[in-house]
Amino acid sequence: MGLKRRAALALMLGAALGLGACGKPAGQGGSSGSGVQLGGPFQLTDQTGKPVDQGLLKGKWTAVFFGYTYCPDVCPTTLQTLGSASDLLGARAKNFQVVFITVDPQRDTPSQLKDYLSSSSFPRGVIGLTGTPDQIAKVAGEYKVYFQKSGSGANYSVDHSSAIYLMNPHGDFDSVIAFGLKPEDIRDQIAKAMGKQG
Fold first, then answer.
1. Residues 149-174, mean pLDDT to the nearest whole number
2. For residue 130, what is the domain's CATH number?
3. pTM of the shown model
4. Which residue has the higher pLDDT, 76 or 153?
5. Which residues are annotated as a binding site?
6. Using the chain's own numbering, where are the disulfide bonds (predicted)?
7. Domain housing 186
8. How many domains does the structure of the chain reveal?
9. Could you report the per-residue pLDDT of 123-152, keeping only the tens digit for each?
């Protein structure tokens, strides 16, 4: 598939799954009932500087969210909501993790991610991932995530898709968690998915 066609597909799916300008409210996302496959292999670096790949998605239910640490509203709000949803899962939370993948690798170094994700209002044990611009573009393409730098200078922002991707313990895509849901609704969606797989 050519680069222009991939970019058009990413824009189309981004519109369907909700975009966040990290400064503007994002639209609602929806479940992928179209048979679209999301996710795939990646090589990234976590907030401790350790190289990781898609294998970290195996063994637990995972909420994958793309954003960046300089985001003023959508990203911290989403992470706080995921933290609350995880708490509401109770004992089932031991089988759930959150992975935050930056769309701003220029500023989001491992140490920047580590500092940012240490907030007590974010999910316990959240894994932050960064990489080279090419690595981030590749993983964003695997998840059909739209992102685009906006503005210039040190204070630029990054427009990006705001949906959360729920992956099953095999590392396969299960469903989209729409932006703007309450923690209770997210908890219910995750618990229902967990129940489907026994």
1. 92
2. 3.40.30.10
3. 0.83
4. 76
5. 71, 75, 160
6. 71-75
7. 3-32+39-196
8. 1
9. 999 999 999 999 999 999 999 999 999 988
- Does residue 5 or residue 67 have the better pLDDT? 67
Binding residues for Cu cation: 71, 75, 160
Contact 18, 26 (CB under 8 A): yes
Return all residues near 33 (Cβ < 8 A) that are at least 6 apart.
none
Q: What is the token pair recorded at 198?
A: 């026994």
Tokens (6 digits) for 100 = 């935050």
Cβ-Cβ contacts under 8 Å for 102 (sequence gap 6 or more): 66, 67, 68, 69, 108, 113, 128, 129, 130, 136
Helix, strand, or coil (residue 156): coil
- Tokens 């967990």 identify what position? 194
Q: How far apart are CA 126 and CA 132, in angstroms?
A: 20
Phi and psi based region of residue 195 (left: phi greater than 0; alpha: psi -120 to 50; beta: remaining): alpha
Six-digit token pair at 67?
């954003």
Using one digit for the tens of pLDDT, what is the confidence trace for 45-83? 999 999 999 999 999 999 999 999 999 999 999 999 999
pLDDT of 88 reads 97
Q: Is 108 in contact with 69 (CB distance < 8 Å)?
A: yes
Q: What is the DSSP letter of 184?
A: H
